[in-house]
Amino acid sequence: MQLVILEEFSMTDISVIGLGSMGTALARAQMKAGRSVTVWNRTPEKATALGSEGATVAATVSEAISASPVTITCVKSHPQTIELLSNAANSLPNKTIIELSTGGAEDAEDLAQLVENAGASWMVGIINAYPHMIGDKDTVLSVVGTEEQWKIHGPIIRNLGGSSVHVGGQAGMLAALFAGLFTVRQGFMWGMIYGALAAKKAGIPMQTFSDLVPISMGMMKPYYDYFAATAPQATYDNPPASMSTYAAALEDVLASFEALGVRDELPRLFVEMAQLGMDQGLEDKALTAIIDVLAQKQ
């Protein structure tokens, strides 16, 4: 009976479960957009500030979900969200859960299955930002869910990040997306580390190497343009630089590492990957053709 009264007299536009720094920022962004918000946190004290700002503070997870047609969850991980939702399953029918916690592909699929079995809808997203960036026009949330859910709830998500994107329809997609994008960033970091190793061994001051990295980064945009022009549509013919050109340069780099007598796992990996493409007769194709070669190897 209490849930019926809450739905009838205390309905809000959206609920937010989890009020750490990020969850609090998510709730405030929705309030700033003019939406009425219900909040819940395991530690009630964290809801006090939002309550004083006009949010409705729910006593339980079930009350928070029941209060709004849409609930954003932002806790530690998918398994924690699964635990919370499992204990509030009676409040889920006909609701939508937008999960913005972290986790792997299997956990995301398990969460989606739980929500569907309870008669609710789901979307899962990755927040590519710090809390202070929530609500900015350039902030990106990468989200999966059905096209219909994106059409309906896209405005809510774009209030959190104006440049947010819909990636696809499978809950587990985001773990692979995160892994791929994190690899890009870490490739840059480890490239600097290995580059510094070679420079240090050659007697080049670390400050000199560090100062020259931004100059080398001037090639990042042309590299991205090369990737964007070839990889998405697999248009590998007539590239501005062929695989054989890259392979020759990589061989030179590896030779320098070998001559210096320093660890060379990273440049050696580059050479080996390029050679796989060369062995497939792709020497005149774009280097990005190696994506298809590697995807076929088990």
- What is the beta-strand fraction? 5-15%
Strand order of the largest sheet: 3-2-1-4-5-6-7-8
Tell me the major beta sheet.
Answer: 8 strands, mixed
Q: How many beta-strand elements?
A: 8
Helix content: 40-55%
Under the CATH scheme, which class of the largest domain?
Alpha Beta
CATH third-level topology of the largest domain: Rossmann fold
List the quaternary state of the chains: single chain
Specify the CATH architecture of the largest domain.
3-Layer(aba) Sandwich
Cα-to-Cα separation, first versus last residue: 57 Å
Rg over CA atoms: 24 Å
Order of helices and strands: HEHEHEHEHEHEEHEHHHHHH
Counted up, domains total 2
Poorly predicted runs: 1-9
User: Can you tell me the overall shape?
Assistant: elongated
- Output mean pLDDT: 93
The CATH homologous superfamily name of the largest domain equals: NAD(P)-binding Rossmann-like Domain
Class by alpha and beta content: alpha/beta
**Count, helices:** 13
Describe this structure in words.
- With 298 residues, the chain is an alpha/beta fold.
- It has two domains: 2-169, Rossmann fold; 176-296, Orthogonal Bundle (N-(1-d-carboxylethyl)-l-norvaline Dehydrogenase, domain 2), CATH 1.10.1040.10.
- The chain contains 13 helices and eight strands.
- An eight-stranded mixed beta sheet has the order 3-2-1-4-5-6-7-8, with helices on both faces.
- Helix 5 (78-86) links the parallel strand 4 and strand 5 (96-99).
- Helix 11 (243-260) packs antiparallel against helix 12.
- The longest helix is centred in the middle third of the chain and has 29 residues, at 173-201.
- It is elongated.
- The termini are far apart.
- Mean pLDDT is 93; it is low at 1-9.
